[in-house]
Records
---
Amino acid sequence: MGSDAYVTPLIGKIIKPLTILLILVSPLFFFGGPDYFSPRLLQEAWNLGHFLFFGIFALLLDNHWCEKQRSILFRFSACCLVLFFVGLSIELIQIAVPGRSFTWIDLFRDVSGGLAFLSWKISSSVSSTQTTFYRTAAFFILLVNCIPLGRMGLDEYRARRDFPLLSGFENSSELSRWNGGAELSQSDSVSLQGKYSGMMRLTTEKYSGISLRHFQGDWSGRNGLTFSIFNPGAEITLHYRVHDSAHRGDMQAYSNRFNGKAVLSGGWTTITIPMADILTGPRNRPMDLTHIEGFGVFVIRQNERRVLYIDDVRLF
């Protein structure tokens, strides 16, 4: 009852719609989709499209090989090779497409998606013991691909639970809330609250720092923003900024956001920004406190690489 003689004709009946579907959605590898400002859960869910697309692609390939009565070993081997080279070609083309880049993890999603779908399909044509093996393998591959989405979902829950704390660095998944030119890692060397802080490895680029991008954006009803920086070395000037969603429509002009700076001597420095200052930060308009989109700290034109630690970023 469970042989490929039953499964393959079923796929054969929908092979044309599936082929048309893949052709129609294939431009999405190069155009469209979430952008830089999209929620990270949406971005990660979108990335799973690689897994689904190549899973369907593998079923279409395997339908052809079943008609040729190829062995299971051949079907898996050929699937891996074809998916790898097609996926690699897509990633290489993306290098030349604005807003796209080459990523090995997407290539992993391509190949693993095909293997998961193929494993589940083959599980219907083998013995009961082998069926368990193939279906377990398919489920495991799916689970591995969903781990980044699950981690981000859990961190979104923590962010909402801990608000008005924006980042305390007590969990490594918090690092996904930040980006920027400086390397950021969790550190237990020094901390102001809890066990960990965020260690920033600053470079000698013109601007080097980190930006908090994923957080609760409604700051209305709060009195201000506070964060603490530990400087283990010589005196340094730290710049910081806050902007709302309207800031991106103005070519991210310096005058269209809140800007501040502080001279950091050795040890911990706690910086407190009254919300009234953030509100009046943009030159020609009030800040939209219900749609705050970013907070960043950075240094300018350092002669040497520096390390700073950040902790307890919160509203009050």
Note: The radius of gyration is 25 Å.
---
Amino acid sequence: MNFIPKITYTELGTGTPKTITFDSPPEGDPFGESFKPVQSSKRSSGGKRQTQFSYNLQRYSIQFLFQSETVKDAFQDFYLNHASRGGDFEYFESSDEVASTTFELVITSLSLSRPIPSATLGEFEYDFSFKIERVV
């Protein structure tokens, strides 16, 4: 397993299938998931707490360092034309795997940093991070 993830999706609006394969594994734990319950709690008139459990969210916080301009452009297109509009996608934890999981992007914002110019004159390598989630 190479731990270099990829994303596949069918772009909203155009119906065009697209794939983004990252240049390197994410920084840190490649399986750094967390779980968050979605529930509501209230007190009854008798003073007892009552909890209504709805579902759990599985979340990944993913950070990539030193990605090429090609990957940055593809991810920016994915963000602007698909994920920020609520489109889901298949996330492969390793680009050589055939099994994937359907996720949605946690929409906050997309920040790109350009830490160093690459060897190709006029291009940069990019760092960016994002969060994805799914109902479990």
Note: Residues 6-29+53-135 form one domain.
